[in-house]
Amino acid sequence: MTLSSQPADHPPTLLPTFEQDVRIGALKLANGELLDDVVQRVTIYGTPRADSSNVVFVPHALTGSGRLTDWWEGFIGPGRALDTDRIALVGINVLGSCYGSTGPSSLAANGKPYGSRFPVVSVADMVSAQQAALAKLGIGRMAGVIGGSLGAMQGLQWILREPDRFRYGMILGAYDYFSAMNLALNALSRAAIQYDPHFCAGDYYDGVAPEYGVRLARMIAMVTYKSKVLLEERFGRRPDRAGGDPAKDPRARFDVESYLEYQGKKFVSRMDANTYLALTRAMDLFDLRDHPTAATTTELTFVGIDSDWLFTASEIEEAAQRFRLRGFPVSSYVLHSSHGHDAFLADLPDLAALLRPSLRALYGSL
Which of 125, 176, 240, 308 is catalytic? Predict the structure, then answer.
């Protein structure tokens, strides 16, 4: 089961100007293992300058892809916050994913999917693969990098590894390590997949996919992405709008249960189980607090979300302060939203307004 592209809920209005699989050869991973014949699927919107000075790199979050308008359409395009009339946006599907880049569902040298043989990858490995792909394309120093959640982690990894590669970095809804609570929540989601009877220790590609486990993993994750306030506002204690009384019928559900079930079923069509395991483990391994730092002029903007309990706004402010102490020019803001962690995907006008000073500086530097 190889998912080569991420289906959007509706066709995006802005299509890529470039989309290509870039072969980067063998990649030595941070744990010492070697992954052969690595592919990175690169997508570009807009027209990069020859010196790449108008390029903004947009790494994606856990379930996203390099096709940026499939998940951030309202933020990207002519006249929008990320204005493709003024800048070129580059998205790269992360190593370990299932939307074009090398991942567990990709074919290994023996012609069969990697499955359980796919190695552990880290955010550092994702960035190494991206560096190699951009080098192949001749893209050097860029105007900026912007990402949310796992995308923000990649942005921070890039900035600490190559502190002068970007003039501006915008870090949304994440900080410089992964907390014990988040480790625990990822463990629950992975267990849901691993306990599915069709998981077969990760070698299920010739049989039935562990769809029930993927559905349950998504349902767990969706609770963590939302806030208590939002769930109360949207669903409260209302019974399922399709009918039924939970007080009388054990099969009847509350409305919030139906919402989670819907999200789980929809997710199965676009997520490979092994990819979910690989990418959540990469998030688990993320910790840059002791990463060496060189002198830099890269201007950082951190954005916390006041209703996010996965990456709390106070923890993001603490990370911003750690980067100030490292010598980075840092601004930090709080996005007020009831959407929880998902606010960087859901409250786009408010996010654009919050980032206006940083984007104004970026556009003014072009």
Answer: 308
Q: Is 308 marked active-site?
A: yes
Domain 182-283 class in CATH: mainly alpha
What is the value of pTM for the model shown? 0.95
On the 0-12 / 13-18 / 19+ scale of CB atoms within 10 A, 223 is middle
Q: Considering 101, 128, 149, 227, which one is annotated as catalytic?
A: 149
Of 258, 337, 341, 342, the catalytic one is 341
What residue spans of the chain are helical by DSSP H? 69-72, 123-136, 150-161, 180-194, 211-225, 228-234, 255-268, 273-284, 313-325, 343-346, 348-354, 356-364
CATH 3.40.50.1820 for domain 18-178+291-364: yes
The predicted-structure confidence for 76-128, as pLDDT tens digits, reads as follows 999 999 999 999 999 999 999 999 999 999 999 999 999 999 999 999 999 99
Domain spans of the chain, in order of start: 18-178+291-364, 182-283
